[in-house]
Amino acid sequence: MTPPLLTRWLLLGEWRSHRLQSVVAVLAITLGVALGFTIHLINTAAVSEFSVATRSLSGKSDLTVRATRYTFDELLYPRLARYAGVAQASPILEITAGVPAKAKTMHNPVFKILGMDGFRAITMTPDLLGVPAEGKPMDTLADDAIFLSPAAMEWLSVKQGDTIEVSTGAKRVQLRVAGGLARAHPGQRIGVMDIGAAQWRFDQLGQLSRIELKLQPGIDPAAFRAVLGEALGPSYLLTESEDDDARIHTMSRAYRINLNILALVALFTGAFLIFSSQVLSTIRRRSQLALLRVLGMSRRQILRQLLLESALLGVLGSLLGLGLGYLLAAAALHFLGADLGAGFFPGVAPRLHLDPLAAVLYFLLGTGITILGGLVPAWEAARTHPAPALKSGSEYTMLTALRVLRLAAVCLLMGLVFTALPSVNDLPVFGYLAIVLLLIGSIAALPYLCGLFFAMLSRLSNPDQTGALVTLATTRLSNASGLAAIALGGVLVSFSLMVAMAIMVASFRISLDDWLGQVLPADVYLHSTIHQDIRGFTLEEQQAMASRNGVARVDFIRSVPVTLDPAKPAITLLARPVALDNPGLILPLTGAALSSGDIPPGAIPIWISEAMVDLYGFRTGDRITLPFSDSTQIFIVAGIWRDYGRIFGAMQMQLSDYRRLTGDDHASDAALWLHPGTAFDTVATALKALPFGETLEIMETGRVRAVALRQFDRSFAVTYLLELVAIGVGLMGAAASFSAQTLTRIREFGMLRHIGLSKRQIYRMLTLEGSLLGGFGILAGFLLGTGISLILVFIVNPQSFHWTMQLHLPWTWLGVMALAVLAAAALTAFLASRRAVSGDVIRAVREDW
To answer: Whole-structure pTM over 0.85, yes or no?
Structure first.
């Protein structure tokens, strides 16, 4: 064992001598752990809160009966209540209502209203019973009374006795706050009404959303579910709480995993910075470590000492990262919400809980990566024989050992192979592994590539034309490519990942903009102020909108959720007028589509999104049945279209076919074409003059696109932040690495001063070296980042979100980033050179003997 006093002396001496490198290493680990822990805390809080809140709505039920559509006839309720094996049945109508008063300050402010039979809810869902004011027990049956959860009261800023206005479609409803709920889940914004009052007030007479069933004792739920499911047919779904949990997790899984991967980028960069700082530290102290070996320290003691240095940096960085991560999670929940702007968890206000197990795991991850980053240089330093290590120049032997070209070739080849493998459980596992392998392979190949590049540059440079400083810089970089690669590694990792993310985000944004241009062919679009309700516009309201002066043509669109698989989120069914012979006018088709002559007699054409191909296996030309229609009705897949708005799948069909099959003549949206010369303001004023005009959101096509792109930027705000953190950590690592390298070259600078170079010339030489290194890092990072972006665009995104996009390179943004990195590298080299050359020349040369 190494004496504790000697261990502390060596640790403190190293940290005091090289504070910058230690601070940067700790900061890198801190940011990596903090970002990963932040994303984990937010995701866990959101998913858990949404899952618990959803389960609380089912109460003590064993099974939930839903229709594949959003509502069904209430005549099913007495049938199920008398069904053999059913002890109790509770009918429920769910209404997603908007709050017009908050529409101007919030994006789509909605909350859930439950219509319930209070007599059935006493035993099935007692927590959701309304608590009326003293002396007003009949408020539980009043047609204007609503009972709100504490979170809903706080969100609406109301108390018992106040009146609130909610909306569905073009209808606004005034409701009286009659009291609170018996025991609502904290943070859950819901309201409860009498089911009859809710059906009448919200134009849902005779309709239910679901029926909760409590089975008789001794009944096997699985067997009962199978029998009842067969009796009800494919139009109904029977689910348990586990099914709801699986569906909730599936909703945001891809988004959460991608954010976690991005958060770990900083941690990966931090691990490399630990590796590079430890390599430079062992090179700088090579003779000191050899002297310790001569004085009696064993190889094991040297290895333990160096790993202890790395471990302490990891422990400190991980602890700081956990604290920072908790603070960042609290701030993100407050300002961005539970879904970080993505819109997966509406109406949920989760509370942040510190997860001890997750904290331990992230602490071990940060510390473990730090130790792993310092393992290779520590092992090499411990196994080196002390005699040659005492001699000047022996550090290049160590750098030669770091050339692992075979490892680089294997990683790059495996990365390419992984890009051809399919997803695993709808996750791009091999795509992510391919990116990791490309990064590791590129880092491993960096010393070799760096030597080739600068050797070629040295041969091409003519000292008579370029000058002695250029020759010295290129010769040094070509002959010491190992040291150059260490300084370059952080820039390569961070810049390549930033390039990859920039290309991916730009490709997505431009593809989204082009997509919006095709799916928004009309002049004006309108929908209700709150755009998540089922009611929409009645036939009379549609006729009133179509008859306004200046309107040449109106296409009404019906958008409703349809559940095809209880284990998956609902898809969106869009019914609208579609030209059978030219559906590409409004649908961004991804391939050839069937024409009207290809549709068999009696079959109904549908057009499916790309997600339907991956999630349900549909293909163009397939003949299928759909559970919301009669089993004898055949639908034929007439084409596949690109949809960036609904990642869980969507299908489109003719509005006339939809209305004939379902009898639903309501509309969710309207697309208006104006007469030539008609001003938008004129039509907007005419529409606002309608009796329900105040409930309309009227937007020109350009504004619709602007709102969609603004929502896109909000969803990717966290991605932008992670990009900046990655490049910041990389630049700090490069700065620390270059600074450490210049300190190892003090003897070299002393010799150059003896043969006639001035301090200013050495400054210029080192600044040139930094610029050349930065330029090579930018070039290599651009090539590697472009390769990674191809994986993100054509593999990760299609496998994660089930859509495709076109590749677009943001040349301006990439140029700005490249210039910033180049300037930072040159400035870093210049500042490091001033410290390295500031010492005494004679003393610097003596250190070589």
So the answer is: no
